[in-house]
């Protein structure tokens, strides 16, 4: 029953992230980058506080992979979480397409590189670095427990400051489900695959760094905003 609750929580949270976050991009003009950033950050924060005891509320397949690589989760239990997150993202993208149409402004919040500001390679590097930062914050504030009950705030604000920093350049998805959702809604996948690859890579590198530098030693006290026995 605990796993079922976790999967429902991850599905709902990821759906909300795409529906609210990408929805904000759709209806707001690009100069409103702060509002778009906070829309993403607040959704993540709210669902982490609401369902952190059920699933950890990562709402991000790259973070789920990183937790496993960091030695803080099990791959067998993480696989259904991947599916729930991607399903939530896909349904979120389809819902936006149904409401606003495939010709909606700003491509339903689909993340693409603005080549007038950087190259495609430069944009992918930004996405990888941003995901590295996010994974590092998740592992240290939530899993290692240094932020206690403020971990959801730190994680949500990390997403927000990444969007404020380079959202105008790449969309600052830093989340494969966030990347894939609007792409499914529009049926356009040209940049989705490379985005997702660098996001998984950024999370994996952060997890390896954490595992060999910051991971808790056996017997360390744990005061976290997530349960002692997470869903995976």
Protein topology:
Elements (H helix, E strand, L loop, with lengths): L1 H26 L5 H23 L5 H9 L5 H26 L19 H24 L7 H20 L5 H11 L5 H22 L19
Helix pairs in contact: 1-2, 1-4, 1-7, 2-6, 3-4, 3-5, 3-8, 4-7, 5-6, 5-8, 7-8
Question: How would you summarize what this structure contains?
Answer:
The chain is mainly alpha-helical and 232 residues long. Helices cover 69% and strands 0% of the residues.
Record keyword descriptors for this entry.
mainly alpha, disordered C terminus, 232 residues
Question: Main beta sheet, described?
Answer: none
Count of spatially separate domains: 1
Name the helicity range.
Answer: 55-70%
The count of helical stretches stands at 8
What is the CATH topology classification name?
Answer: Glycerol uptake facilitator protein
Question: What's the level 1 CATH class?
Answer: Mainly Alpha
Report the C-alpha radius of gyration, rounded: 16 Å
- Give the helix/strand class: mainly alpha
The second-level CATH architecture is Up-down Bundle
**What is the arithmetic mean of pLDDT?**
90
Order of helices and strands: HHHHHHHH
Low-pLDDT residue intervals, each spanning 5 or more residues: 221-231
- The fraction of residues in strands falls at under 5%
Distance between the termini: 13 Å
Total strands: the figure is 0
Instruction: Sum up the overall morphology in one term.
Output: globular
The fourth-level CATH homologous superfamily is Glycerol uptake facilitator protein
């Amino acid at each position: 029953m605990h796993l079922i609750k976790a999967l429902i929580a991850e599905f709902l949270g990821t759906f909300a992230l795409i529906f609210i976050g990408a929805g904000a991009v759709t209806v707001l003009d690009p100069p409103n980058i702060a509002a778009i950033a906070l829309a993403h950050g607040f959704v993540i924060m709210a669902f982490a506080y609401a369902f952190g005891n059920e699933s950890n509320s990562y709402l991000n397949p790259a973070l789920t992979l990183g937790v496993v690589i960091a030695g803080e989760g099990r791959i067998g239990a993480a696989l259904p979480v991947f599916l729930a997150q991607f399903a939530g993202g896909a349904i979120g993208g389809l819902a936006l397409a149904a409401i606003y149409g495939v010709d909606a402004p700003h491509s339903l919040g689909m993340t693409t590189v603005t080549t007038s500001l950087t190259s495609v390679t430069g944009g992918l590097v930004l996405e990888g670095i941003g995901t590295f930062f996010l994974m590092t914050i998740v592992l240290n504030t939530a899993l290692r427990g240094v932020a206690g009950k403020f971990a959801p705030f730190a994680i949500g604000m990390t997403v927000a400051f990444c969007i404020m920093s380079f959202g105008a350049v790449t969309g600052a998805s830093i989340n494969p489900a966030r990347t894939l959702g609007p792409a499914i809604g529009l049926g356009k996948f040209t940049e989705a695959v490379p985005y997702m690859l660098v996001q998984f890579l950024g999370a994996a590198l952060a997890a390896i760094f954490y595992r060999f530098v910051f991971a808790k030693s056996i017997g360390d006290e744990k005061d976290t905003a997530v349960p002692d026995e997470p869903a995976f």
